[in-house]
Design brief:
heterodimer, A: alpha/beta, 5-stranded mixed beta sheet, elongated, B: alpha+beta, 5-stranded antiparallel beta sheet, 18 helices, globular
């Protein structure tokens, strides 16, 4: 097992070259640190090179180190090679001033939801993501709840009651220009309620 | 009819139950054929057993666009984990996938054990396997039973619920609870199996197998069922991999990836079982994969109970597991260790690990960062339901509105796991 991880380490250095930073074997898993500028190239070669063949993106998450580290955020990718049955962890340190990495949606479609979650929870932007909306929280939520400076029992401002008749998520997403808000709609409903 | 009149007609709302339908003209004066209709399904709809909203844009009966809106059951699992110690997370994990809570317990335990670089005793591993596999059968029974009911096969649902009841009785016998079991402990399990468990298991499995034969007869070659399930929501193996699908969803698409085989944990490599794999990647394949997996799970349980080794059920390290009460009351060391463990919890060394296990729905992974204190610095769940919902839009595009429910049923989204 250890030999296989060592072999993976060597082929990773050979294929990705200078893109990979520090490589450590932590509890039997290979963990590699990659700078944000090199991330796109490293992910691409991880997926496409036949020696590495990481076909599946298993998970994307992030860690907020707040003041404990110089670079506040760390985005963590878990890759899996089904043909070689190996796992790889990629960590990308990010400064607080520009929490932004390149999207992986072009390589793996599963990255869509995972990146939306990281954006929602940590406020880390994914450059080039086609649809970077909040996913678990609602649109009006203030702040990013999994950041360490967000209080555990944080209070949120009240939001306006949304009328499902005036809102249409699917259209907003795809064809924003076609949304039509019908002003008389609300009046008609009010009349009906009075009648009842 | 003039354009203005058409518009007025189409603005009439037809609200039926949880579904609001609205017809809107794309452009004024367009003829009827070019219109699409928005159907808003959920978040409180009886057929979406779980709080989720799907906004589907229909052209006739075809779904031309869909937006999947998750997050209605978000309770801040990950944030809460950062405030409690490692063993106190156990009740929270029960509430992830609440159909098979024991699997989540053991997934969390395995992650912390990897962080501590220890291994649970052999007997504990075997008992974990038995209870996990029973839970997996419960999970599949719930998924298939509910889906079958939505397609009209109510008898199947009742048979499956009864079969699940036999298994829940077994779990209750060991853990004392039916749903929120909190049975895992870092380094082992809470209790040993009860006396006479093997016989009870044998009797329960006989009941389950009888019911499964009945369900097989009612469902697998049922024409209505086949026509609703076959060739619906097809995903090729490449697409399934690209969408990060795991578990029955991935295996239904023909990729033989089961963590119990590929990265064996808890002595799974010592058991003989097969991994059913689909060929087409449609809903029917997903159904069959789940159906055949249940038999394999029962087989694993029988092997494990036959070869159950003797020995302790939790590691003997006083910094990880509570010592016997005898030692706590009669020695000062024992009492100090007990106090330390209760007050400050297990303290794993600094580091981060990712550990995945085969949950009912797929790869259930935990990513835990330790800063050396008694509480996890960061705990993340890789929830299969959440990731599977990411492929929902792709599966729905081009399908009929009637295909939405079986597709959703075969994803088997569990709200607690998806939204965390």
């Amino acid at each position: 097992m250890v030999n296989r991880v060592e072999a993976l380490k060597e082929s990773l250095v050979a294929i990705c070259g200078e893109g990979v930073g520090e490589l450590v074997i932590e509890r039997g898993d290979l963990v590699v640190t990659v700078q944000p500028a090199a991330l796109a190239a490293v992910l691409k070669s991880c997926k496409e090179s036949p020696q590495l063949a990481f076909e599946m993106l298993v998970d994307i998450t992030a860690v907020d180190w707040l003041d404990a580290r110089e670079k506040r955020f760390e985005v963590v990718y878990q890759l899996l090679s089904l043909t070689k049955t190996q796992r790889l962890t990629i960590k990308v340190p990010l400064g607080e001033d520009r929490p932004e990495v390149v999207t992986a949606t072009a390589l793996w479609r599963g990255a869509n939801f995972l990146e939306r979650e990281v954006w929602d929870m940590f406020g880390i932007r994914f450059e080039g993501h086609p649809d970077l909306r909040r996913i678990l929280m609602y649109e009006e939520f203030v702040g990013h709840p999994l950041r360490k400076d967000y209080p555990v029992q944080g209070k949120q401002p009240r939001v306006q009651l949304r009328s499902p008749e005036l809102e249409n998520t699917a259209r907003k997403m795809q064809r924003g220009d076609l949304v039509t808000i019908r002003a008389k709609k609300g009046e008609a409903t009010a009349d009906k309620r009075q009648g009842a | 009819m003039t354009g203005e009149n058409t518009k007025k007609l189409l603005e009439i709302d037809v609200g039926v139950g949880g579904i609001t339908t609205q017809a809107r003209p794309r452009e004024l004066g367009d003829d009827l054929h070019s219109e699409t209709m928005i159907v808003n399904l959920g978040p409180a709809h009886p057929a979406t057993h779980g709080t989720i909203r799907i906004v589907a844009e229909l052209s006739g009966e075809k779904i031309v666009d869909a937006d999947v809106d998750v997050g209605y059951l978000h309770r801040g699992f990950e944030k809460m984990c950062e405030t409690v110690d490692y063993n106190q997370v156990m009740p929270y994990t029960d509430r992830l996938n609440y159909v098979s809570p024991i699997i989540n317990n053991f997934g969390w335990c395995l992650t912390i054990e990897k962080l501590l670089e220890i291994e649970a005793p052999k007997r504990a591993q075997y008992i974990r396997v038995i209870l996990s596999e029973i839970s997996r059968v419960c999970d599949h029974l719930t998924c298939l039973g509910a889906s079958a009911m939505e397609l009209g096969a109510f008898t199947v649902m009742l048979y499956m619920m009864e079969a699940r009841e036999y298994l829940w009785d077994l779990l209750e016998e060991v853990t004392g609870a039916r749903l929120t079991v909190s049975f895992g402990r870092v380094g082992g399990i809470k209790d040993d199996l009860t006396t006479g468990f093997a016989e009870k298991m044998k009797a329960a499995f006989k009941g389950v197998r009888d019911h499964l034969v009945n369900c097989d007869r009612l469902l697998t070659r049922n024409r209505i069922f086949i026509e609703r399930m076959c060739d619906v929501a097809v995903l090729t193996s490449d697409e399934a991999i690209s969408y990060s699908l795991t578990g029955p969803m991935l295996r239904g698409s023909g990729v033989s990836y089961d963590i119990r085989k590929t990265f064996p944990y808890s002595s799974y490599d010592e058991f003989d079982f097969e991994v059913p794999v689909g060929s087409k990647g449609d809903n029917y394949d997903r159904f069959l994969v789940r159906f055949y997996e249940m038999e394999q799970s029962l087989r694993i349980c029988e092997q494990a109970i036959a070869r159950l080794p003797d020995g302790p059920i939790i590691v003997a390290d006083p910094h990880i597991a509570l010592m016997p009460k005898d030692e706590v009351y009669r020695s000062i060391d024992g009492m100090i260790n007990h106090f330390e463990l209760v007050m400050y919890g297990v303290k794993p060394p600094v580091g981060s690990v990712y550990q995945a296990i085969e949950g009912g729905n797929g790869e259930l992974g935990f990513y835990v960062v330790s800063d050396g204190s008694g509480k996890p610095y960061r705990a993340h769940v890789r929830a299969p339901s959440f990731i599977h919902m990411g492929s929902m839009r792709k599966m729905l595009l081009g399908a009929n509105i009637s295909d939405l429910i079986p597709t959703f049923g075969m994803i088997n989204m569990i709200g607690g796991e998806c939204d965390r």
